[in-house]
Fold these 2 entries.
Entry 1:
Amino acid sequence: MIHTRILMVCLGNICRSPLAEGILKSMVNSDFIYIDSAGTSAFHKGELPDIRSINIAKKHGIDITDQRSRQFKASDFDIFDTIYVMDDSNKTNVLALAKNNNDRAKVKLILNESNTEITSNVPDPYYDKDQGFEIVYNMLHDACTCISDKL
Ligand code: 4NP
């Protein structure tokens, strides 16, 4: 039975949060942990993850092609226990939809889970080449390892 629900959030829900969703799903038992992702924008609503995210995930044995972009909504606060955002801008946009302190307490920067990172923001790789996606993948892998260790 599901006991923990985690939502990964970025801006477009096509680059960073689909990777975070796929990586964490590969580390936990889906009978108990439900994981989803969303974007603060609807720019890419209904779209597959970016091909560069699909490829870097595939390189590590993870298939994220079942994912489709959707926009974060206020009711997500009622479903999810923890909402991991990729950067400060995502955090501001998600917190703007919070109804109370209970909602606000659910929002965390994902890199704060892994203390090895100097920066607390996962850089937006959208305008990068493939190397940016490799860097993002490694950051998210480290953070998801820390998250799954605690679950
Ligand atoms: P993501 O990357 O937030 O990691 O999915 C982006 C994807 C699309 C855009 C920006 C960031 N965009 O401006 O369309």
Entry 2:
Amino acid sequence: MKNIILIGFMGVGKGSVAREMIKHSEYMAIDTDDVIESIQNKKIKAIFEDDGEKYFRDLEKKVAKWLQNSVKNTLISTGGGFYKQKNLKKIGVVVLLDSPFDEILKRIKEHPNAVKKLKKRPLLADLKKAKELYDERRPEYLAIADVVVDVTRKSAEDCSKEILKKVEKYV
Ligand code: S3P
């Protein structure tokens, strides 16, 4: 089995979908942000504040190399900027969770942990800038993805089923 990499904008639901997918498949799962927090023993927010975004991006690069060389049969959920890794396609099949910006914001705001979800994401602090980032990234997400799934107002379970079906021919 090839790795499956979930990419997409902050708050689109990559983590929830990954957790759902492992219930219905043989895959194990990891999250690139979790790996970074673990090796640094620090939250992403604190890494951005103390060490800066460039430091964080270098850590993402290190994680990407490790994934390519050492990780197999795994479902990998990623931070919203991880798709820029040059070796992304060598890691596995790339699946984009796609949704309009407004729907993503709505999803975050309607979540029971909305405040926490907004707070932990430094790049969502300024919503105007976040929208600009979304507009800049969306065509790049679409260009790199092997599979695109529109997750708008769908349950994690439905998204999970749709992805597992669509990736069959790649894995
Ligand atoms: C980022 C997304 C975050 C996290 C970091 C940077 C981004 O992950 O990696 O704050 O550049 O879009 P989520 O997509 O899980 O929020």
